[in-house]
Design the sequence.
C-alpha cells in the first residue's frame, strides 16, 4: 500500500513540474495564460491530478508603436477566422497578408463588425478585416471659400480687363480644384476696383479659360461685404474636356473685406479631393478601424469584434494561443469594446504572458521537494519490506 500511495505522489509531483516547466517556457509568449495544477485525494489510496486549469488574468502591456499590434485591457478575446471556423485569442500581433487581410502568424483573419451606416456597426455580423488596396475615390470641387482683403488705397485699373495684362486688374490669386476624375485644375481669381466707391469686380478663370461673367462685390463703410447678400456666387457649368462631370462651384466671399493696407489672402479653400493612396490605419479604443489616405480622406473599415464567455475555464485550448468554445464555456457573447464587461482595445501595444516567473520558480522548488519526499517514502517502505522478509 505505501508503494502505491507514494507512487501516486511521484506522478502528481511530476505533473506539477511539467506544468510549471510549460509556464516558464512560455513566459515570453504573447497573450499566453499560465496553467495551474489542481490535485485531489484518492480515498485511502494517494493523490491524483484533478485538473490543469488556465488562469486568464491580465498580462502586462508592452508598447510597440505598430498600429496593427492590439491588446485588450480587460475581458474579452479577439475573434479570428481559421479557414471559416471561429477561434479566439488574446494575442494581438497582427500583420497584413498579400491580399490585404489582417492576419496573425497562423494566417487566421481578424474579424470586424461591418459598418451599417451613420457610424453604427452591425454587431450581429462578422467579416474579415481587409485593408483596402484600391485608390480612394476622388471628390469633385463643389464649393470654395474666398477670404481676401482688397486695399482701399488701390486705384481703378486703366483699360478693359485682360488676364495677360497686370495693369488691367489690381490683384489675383489661385487655388487648385479637382474634377470628378480627380484631375487637378487651376482656378484663378482676378480682382479689379471700379469707379463706384466700395465696389470691386471679381472674375474666375479655370485653366486660363473664363468661367462665367463679372461678379460685383459691394462693401459697407466699415469694409465688410455688403453684396451679394448671401456672399456666394455660383459658377455656370464648366466642362474640363477630359470626360469628367462639368464643374459647378459655389464660391463664398463672406470673409472678403475692403480694409486699408495691402492685398492679403486670409482664407482660400475648396472641398475637392484628388485620388488618394492608403498611408496608414488608426484603431481607437472602441475598436473602430479607420484608413487614412494621401488626399486627406478617411474610410471606416469596420469595428474589431470582441467575444466574451461566461466560463473561461471551459474553453478548449487549441495551441497557438487560441481557444474554441465548448459546451462548458457557454455560447460566445459578442459586443463592442468598452461596453458591458468587454475591455478596451489599445492599438500599438501587445499583451505579454501573465506568467509570474518568481512564483513559478518557487512552485518548482515545492514540486521538487514533494517529488523527493515521495521518493524517500518508497525507499523507506522498501526498507521496511526487506526487514519483514528477513525475519526468521
Sequence:
Amino acid at each position: 500500500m505505501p508503494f502505491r500511495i507514494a507512487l501516486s505522489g511521484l506522478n502528481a509531483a511530476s505533473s506539477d513540474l511539467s506544468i510549471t516547466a510549460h509556464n516558464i517556457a512560455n513566459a515570453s509568449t504573447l497573450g499566453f495564460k499560465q496553467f495551474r495544477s489542481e490535485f485531489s485525494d484518492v480515498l485511502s489510496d494517494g493523490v491524483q491530478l484533478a485538473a490543469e486549469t488556465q488562469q486568464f488574468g491580465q498580462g502586462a502591456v508592452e508598447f510597440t508603436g505598430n498600429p496593427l499590434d492590439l491588446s485588450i485591457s480587460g475581458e474579452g478575446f479577439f475573434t479570428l477566422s481559421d479557414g471559416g471556423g471561429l477561434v479566439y485569442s488574446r494575442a494581438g500581433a497582427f500583420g497584413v497578408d498579400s491580399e490585404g487581410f489582417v492576419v496573425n502568424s497562423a494566417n487566421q483573419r481578424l474579424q470586424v463588425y461591418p459598418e451599417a451606416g451613420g457610424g453604427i456597426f452591425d454587431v450581429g455580423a462578422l467579416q474579415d478585416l481587409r485593408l483596402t488596396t484600391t485608390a480612394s475615390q476622388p471628390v469633385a470641387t463643389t464649393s470654395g471659400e474666398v477670404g481676401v482683403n482688397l486695399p482701399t488705397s488701390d486705384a481703378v485699373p486703366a483699360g478693359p480687363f485682360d488676364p495677360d495684362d497686370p495693369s488691367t486688374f489690381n490683384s489675383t490669386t489661385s487655388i487648385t480644384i479637382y474634377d470628378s476624375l480627380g484631375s487637378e485644375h487651376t482656378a484663378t481669381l482676378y480682382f479689379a476696383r471700379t469707379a463706384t466707391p466700395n465696389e470691386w469686380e471679381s472674375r474666375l478663370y479655370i485653366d486660363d479659360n473664363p468661367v462665367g461673367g463679372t461678379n460685383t462685390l459691394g462693401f459697407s463703410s466699415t469694409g465688410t461685404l455688403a453684396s451679394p447678400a448671401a456672399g456666394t456666387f455660383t459658377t455656370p457649368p464648366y466642362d474640363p474636356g477630359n470626360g469628367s462631370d462639368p464643374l459647378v462651384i459655389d464660391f463664398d466671399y463672406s470673409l472678403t473685406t475692403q480694409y486699408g493696407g495691402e492685398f492679403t489672402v486670409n482664407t482660400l479653400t475648396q472641398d475637392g479631393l484628388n485620388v488618394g493612396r492608403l498611408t496608414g490605419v488608426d484603431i481607437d479604443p472602441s475598436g473602430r478601424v479607420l484608413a487614412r489616405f494621401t488626399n486627406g480622406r478617411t474610410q471606416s473599415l469596420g469595428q474589431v469584434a470582441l467575444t466574451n464567455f461566461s466560463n473561461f475555464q471551459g474553453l478548449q485550448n487549441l495551441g497557438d494561443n487560441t481557444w474554441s468554445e465548448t459546451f462548458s464555456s457557454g455560447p460566445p457573447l459578442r459586443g463592442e469594446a468598452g461596453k458591458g464587461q468587454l475591455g478596451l482595445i489599445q492599438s500599438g501595444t501587445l499583451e505579454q504572458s501573465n506568467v509570474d516567473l518568481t512564483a513559478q520558480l518557487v512552485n518548482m522548488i515545492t514540486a521538487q521537494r514533494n517529488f523527493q519526499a515521495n521518493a524517500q517514502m518508497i525507499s523507506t517502505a522498501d526498507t521496511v519490506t526487506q526487514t519483514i522478509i528477513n525475519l526468521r
About this structure: The helical segments are 2-25, 357-389. DSSP finds two helices and 30 strands in the chain. The longest strand covers residues 209-219.
